[in-house]
TrEMBL record:
Gene Ontology cellular component terms for the protein in this record: mitochondrion
Pfam families attached to this UniProt entry: NIPSNAP
Coiled-coil annotated residue ranges, if any: none
GO process annotations (BP): mitophagy
Record-annotated NIPSNAP domain positions: 61-162, 175-272
Family: Belongs to the NipSnap family.
Protein name per its UniProtKB record: NIPSNAP domain-containing protein
Length: 274
């Protein structure tokens, strides 16, 4: 009982919204075990995977990041447009479609990002990879593209169920992709906090889509936002801080982050979302 009184006294004098971490040693007696549960935030065991709890696993997103040779940007974009046309001409067979295609205007320059949606899970991706490999026209486009890029990276992602679905926007917009590297084991906590936090970011309809990685760099999260311009971005973000509760979302999610960066994106002419 003395331990309980000490815990209640401690919590009384803590500042509002403080995150409490237990520093006491582990004991086997019942009282200390109960006290530990009181002070430590725990993630309960579950028989479901975290990805199943956060997303629909039958829809997979492929995020292609290409670093382009500075002298070959126009040739690269023409080549990729031809690739998009090829894929969309075989859409019923491939089961995939382009969600968005962008070039980076602030951040990693001479870089392009292409986001594809596969309906049917990894089974569809496996079949598409075989078709791409065996089709001579697509293989020729891939070979030509190799002359225009310095490096490439591919991630397979799942969409957070509480984010918008990345539906096409009318022209003219800029996009911001904010990428986070999280501490392992924190994805559920991240999702829980952002499910609440996103309610404070709806006034200007700036939320486009949110994803987390399945294959590639793990514990990666990508939030994509849509704005009319950089000034609108600034005004929208500043107004968000005036919403009670947004500061709590930030306070609880920042400690989960190992690394983060943002890039400002401009849609390509063949991007479905503008």
């Amino acid at each position: 009982m003395k331990s309980l009184n000490r815990a209640i006294s401690l919590c009384t004098y803590l500042p509002k919204n403080s995150r409490v971490i237990s520093t006491s040693s582990v004991h086997n007696n019942t009282e200390d075990g109960w006290l530990k549960k009181l002070l430590v935030r725990r993630i309960e065991p579950t028989k479901e995977s975290h990805s199943r709890m956060l997303s629909d696993k039958e829809i997979i997103y492929a995020l292609h990041t290409h670093n382009i040779r500075p002298d070959s940007v126009d040739k690269y974009l023409k080549n990729y447009k031809n690739s998009v046309d090829f894929v969309h001409s075989r859409k019923p067979e491939l089961g995939c479609e382009l969600v968005g295609s962008w070039t980076v205007s602030v951040g990693d320059m001479d870089q392009a990002l292409h986001l594809w949606r596969y309906v049917g899970g990894f089974e569809k991706i496996d079949k598409a990879k075989i078709l791409f490999r065996e089709n001579p026209d697509y293989a020729a486009l891939e070979k030509e593209r190799g002359n225009f890029v310095r490096s490439r990276h591919l991630q397979y992602l799942l969409a957070f169920s509480f984010w918008p679905n990345g539906e096409p926007r009318e022209p003219n917009n800029i996009y911001e992709i904010r990428s986070y590297s999280l501490k392992p084991g924190t994805m559920i906590e991240w999702g829980n906090n952002w499910a609440r936090g996103l309610t404070y970011r709806r006034a200007q309809n700036e939320a486009f889509a949110g994803y987390f990685s399945q294959i590639g760099r793990l514990y990666n999260v990508h939030h994509i936002w849509c704005y009319k311009n950089l000034q609108a971005r600034r005004e929208t973000r500043e107004s968000t801080w005036r919403n009670p509760g947004w500061d709590e979302c930030v306070a609880y999610t920042v400690p989960l982050i190992r690394e983060m960066h943002c890039r400002i994106l401009e849609p390509t002419e063949f991007s479905p979302t503008q």
